[in-house]
Every structure is written in C-alpha cells, then in structure tokens.
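Internal tracking record. Fields below are filled automatically when a chain is submitted to the structure queue. Please do not edit lines marked as system-generated. If the sequence contains nonstandard residues, flag them in the REMARKS field before resubmitting.
Queue: standard
Priority: normal
Entity type: single polypeptide chain
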Amino acid sequence: MIGDWIEAARPKTLPAAVVPIMVGAAEAKRMGIFDWWPVAICLVFALLVQIGTNMANDYFDHIRGADTSDRVGPERLVASGRIEPKRMLWVSLAVFLLAFLVGLNLVSYRGWELLVVGVVSIIFGYGYTGGPFPLAYRGLGDVFVIFFFGLVATMGTVYVITGSLTLSSAFLGAALGLLANNILVVNNYRDRETDRVAKKMTLIARWGLSFGLAQYRVQLMLSFLAIAVYVSRTGELAHAAPFLALPLGYRLASSLEKTQGKELNALLAKTAGLLLLVGVLCSGSIFFTSI
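SYSTEM-GENERATED OUTPUT FOLLOWS
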C-alpha cells in the first residue's frame, strides 16, 4: 500500500517542483540575500502542490475516461483498481490542505500577497484536470505548467527571500517552465489517441504529432535562449553552464520523432532528467559564483 501511494505521487515528475526552487534560491543568493528557512518552506509547498495535482489527475482522468486499458503510459492507481477512487480524491485534497498550511508560514515571513499566490496555485493544481473547467481538457495544461512550474515558482522563491520581483528571475523561470512543459509534451504525445477518445483535447490531441514535435523543439530552443539572455544580464560567463546540457536536449528532441509506444515512457523520464540537469547546472553556477 505504501508503494502504491509513492507511485501515485509520480516521483519522476517531481523535478518540475524542485528545480525552480533551487534556481530561485541561487538567484536570491546572487542578489545578496539568502535564508534556508523560506527555501525549505517553498520546496515543501511546491512538492505538496505537485503531488496533490498528480493524485487529483489520477482520480479525474479515471472518471473522465482518459485512463483506460488502452493507455500506453504507466499504470495509474485508480484505473488499475489498486487505490479506490474516492480515497485517491480525499488524499489529494488532504495533500492540498497540507500545502496550504505549510504555505501559511511564508505569509508570516513575507506578506499577505503570498496567501493569494498560494491559494491560486492550489486551485489551479486541482483544476488541472478537476472542476467544471479542467485545464488539461481544454488545451491549457501547457500554460499552467509554464506559468506555475516556471515563472511563479522561480520568481516566487526569489520574492519570498528578497522581497523583490526581478526581470532576471523571470528569464530563469521562463527557461525552467518551458523545459518542464516538454515533460508534458512527451506525455501528451504518448497519450494522444486515448486523449482524443476521452475528449481530453491537449494541444497535440487537437493539432497532431507534427505540432508536438515542433513544440518540443521550439520550447527547448526558447528555454536556452532565455538562459542566454539571463547570462547577458549578469555578465558572468560561468552562468552559461546549463548550455553543457544542450547536446542532450538536442538528442532527446531528435529521438522523439523516432520513438513510439511504451518507449516514450523512457523518453519522458529523460526529459525530466534534462530539466533536473539544467537546474543543477544553473543553480550551482549561480550559487557558487555568489560566494
């Protein structure tokens, strides 16, 4: 049972929550302010929102018919019968509630405006596949990922620590959000047929595989362009360390067109690994040049 719940949290997707906090903390250090306590709170909050979103997604995709026996992706816990639907829903809501309670610590640390950001993040996490207007079913999942797992998470971490919203952190957030969304692109590329049947009209279900291939490549290029702009703003050559991961990104983009079926699960994991690698190189280079 414990293993089932760990699987329901979808550990392979969690770099999308961890990386922007790492990079935001490093950027705050570059700005001359650093405190481990708000970093830890931001990290726990982001992880809980991601896990709650994943569990809610497991439940709502099942009841909306997107997770069936024809699905190519990893087995989902509700659809397989390993976790009861209502139990998954209630646990996801409990995780969101815990995220809210953890986030309250940030309100006392920085200000009431973070309460708004936290509540909106939780609402949209639930509304990714739940509620009367599920974002993923309307082709808006990509906007959600880029905005919340890129811009909001990165800039929010910088703001919590320093009290400032900066253009440099926006470029970092855009880069990370685009790379995180490439994880979703592979997911939607793999599930396009079952998504169409369930009327889950992701961008790829709506516009086809060629669009998905182009989206992956364009987002990869734009993410590294955003990093290049950040480097030009700081004037620190060491901050270009993430470009060491560009050849890997290019290989992943080239292999997407040749990969089918269950092999896409491995490509999805490698895309998450690319995000983590870029995050480590980015945060490490920024942090250590600030010491």
